[in-house]
Automatic annotation (TrEMBL):
Pfam families: UDPGT
Family: Belongs to the UDP-glycosyltransferase family.
UniProt entry tagged with the keyword Membrane: no
Keywords: Glycosyltransferase, Transferase
EC number: 2.4.1.-
CDD domains cross-referenced by the UniProt entry: GT1_Gtf-like
PANTHER family hit by this protein: GLYCOSYLTRANSFERASE-RELATED, UDP-GLYCOSYLTRANSFERASE 72E1
Protein name: Glycosyltransferase
Length: 487
């Protein structure tokens, strides 16, 4: 079919590095795919009255220099500062609709025929009908998460009372049941604005031509098969993961990067802990204290990507993550440590602390890294898998709790830390002993996790080769689309 050579895909990405990074990867993979001839990436943004995060600018500029695809920055949108992150994202995406429509209608040939966005952009999907485009969702998180969202309109009808008050686990046909404690924010209060924004997004998700999920069969076989059985809802599912960046010298300040890598070069193989709780999370003093004591108890060396502490832990910086990056992290590290608790100062000499954007992939890829203490953002899990590094999971909010469960129970490449119910903080002993267990060459469970993650690394290496499984899934999606919609 000669028309299959002329697809122009328009991608719509919400703000936040956790979204932008996988969307850039999706864009690159689409461009390299013979079926797609042109890709335009729209990036929505928040009006936070300060300049764009330096790291975002660096990453986008480097993609643009390579001339892979067009990037269109949508005008920044004002959001109420006190709204939660999900509500902010929903507002930004909805209010970006007129700008997207304007851009698409003024595009010259080839006009976009495919619209791909994320769950928060799904409220934008109805415009696809107006422009006669096929519509897809790209899911930069787990398949289990897709299953929950697809099943939500049904749960809404059958579950009585608050989801979090349920005594039984939440059942999804064919999938592992979900503990009510692990549900993400929209499920916490059915009367909250966020739940009322999330529910219609799930309805839109049921109407798409396909969902691209950043996962692969060997990670989530049971869930992927359940999704494909149509028992949850009949929507085509395409596992196209892992889409992760190449570990290249492009994403952070060079001096900072060289300092970290030189230090890692001097360490023994698989002897160092890498700690990062994500791109935009600020730890409380209490959390930093326990983490520092836990690292001390582990007796190992470490690299810790850490933002200055706050009296209140939280994700306020999520949509603007990386704002403080771009400067040389090392002197800055020395300059700002006075804000940290005493426990932190004690262990400083046993490791490196990076207080701006860490070259995470390069660190994980380094042979001296033995374990990743992670918040279990899905990108971080995929990156760890691709580098063959086992995980100690300290999930904090959003999809991270379910991701940590998937990582530990379904994928089997690490351990999820127990959070003390009274303080909501993970204790230092728990941190120290779990790190020790995973890194201990004699520990049977630790050995099994290390072996499993290395096997997955080898599978992931070949998955995007020509005719590899994820490459073929993408082809199938567009072939099916052309048969169904005749576009
Ligand atoms: N990241 C990084 N350096 C940092 C913090 C984060 O390179 O200092 C990258 C990380 O490699 C990943 C992304 O930012 O690609 C974070 O995505 P993830 O889904 O793991 O977590 P989020 O930050 O969205 O919670």
């Amino acid at each position: 079919n000669s028309s299959t050579n002329h697809y122009h895909a328009a991608l719509l990405c919400p703000p936040g590095m956790g979204h932008i990074i996988p969307f850039l990867e999706l864009a690159k993979h689409l461009v390299s795919h013979t079926i797609i001839t042109k890709v335009t990436l729209f990036i929505a943004s928040i009006n936070n009255k300060s300049s764009k995060p330096q790291v975002e600018t660096n990453i986008l500029q480097s993609s643009m220099k390579q001339g892979f695809f067009d990037i269109i920055h949508l005008p920044p949108i004002d959001v109420p500062t006190n709204a939660n992150m999900g509500t902010k994202l929903a507002i930004i995406m909805k209010e970006s609709i007129p700008f997207i429509c304007h851009e698409i209608s003024t595009m010259t040939s080839p006009k976009p025929t495919i619209l791909i966005t994320e769950l928060f952009g799904s409220l934008v999907l109805p415009i696809a009908e107006h422009f006669n485009m096929s519509k897809f969702v790209f899911w930069p998180s787990s398949a289990w998460n897709v299953a929950l969202s697809l099943h939500t309109p049904t749960l809404d009808k059958v579950v009585e009372g608050e989801f979090t008050d349920q005594e039984e686990f939440i059942q999804i046909p064919g999938c592992n049941p979900i503990s009510p404690c692990d549900l993400f924010s929209p499920f916490l209060d059915r009367n909250d604005q966020l739940y009322h924004e999330y529910l219609p997004m799930c309805e839109e998700l049921r109407k798409v031509d396909g969902i691209f999920v950043n996962t692969f069969l060997e990670l989530e076989a049971k869930t992927i098969l359940a999704l494909r059985s149509g028992k949850i809802y009949k929507v085509p599912i395409y596992p196209i993961g892992p889409l992760i960046r190449e570990a290249k010298k492009q994403n952070c300040d060079d001096e900072n990067r060289d300092y970290v890598i030189d230090w890692l070069d001097k360490q023994e193989e698989e002897s160092v802990i890498y700690v990062s709780l994500g791109s935009g999370y600020t730890m409380s003093h209490e959390q930093i204290k326990e983490m520092a004591l836990g690292l001390e108890l582990s007796g190992k060396k470490f690299v810790w990507s850490l933002r200055p502490p706050s009296t209140k832990a939280g994700n306020d910086r999520y949509l603007t993550a990386g704002e403080d990056a771009g400067s040389n992290g090392v002197p800055k590290t020395r300059a700002s440590v006075s804000a940290f608790p005493d426990e932190f100062h004690k262990i400083q000499n046993r490791g490196l602390v990076i207080m701006d954007w860490a070259p995470q992939l390069e660190i994980l890829k380094h042979s001296s890294i033995g374990v990743f203490v992670s918040h279990c953002g899905w990108n971080s899990i995929l990156e760890s898998v691709s580098c063959g590094v086992p995980i100690v999971g300290w999930p904090l909010f959003a999809d991270q709790l379910m991701n940590a469960e998937t990582m530990a129970k379904e994928i089997g490449i690490g351990i999820r830390l127990n959070v003390a119910q009274s303080t909501k903080v993970v204790g230092s002993e728990e941190i120290g002993k779990t790190i020790w267990k995973i890194m201990d060459k004699e520990d049977i469970e630790g050995c099994a996790m290390r072996k499993r993650v290395k096997e997955l690394k080898h599978i992931a290496e070949k998955i995007w080769s020509q005719d590899g499984p994820s490459f073929c899934e993408m082809t199938n999606a567009f072939v099916k689309m052309s048969h169904t919609n005749g576009v």
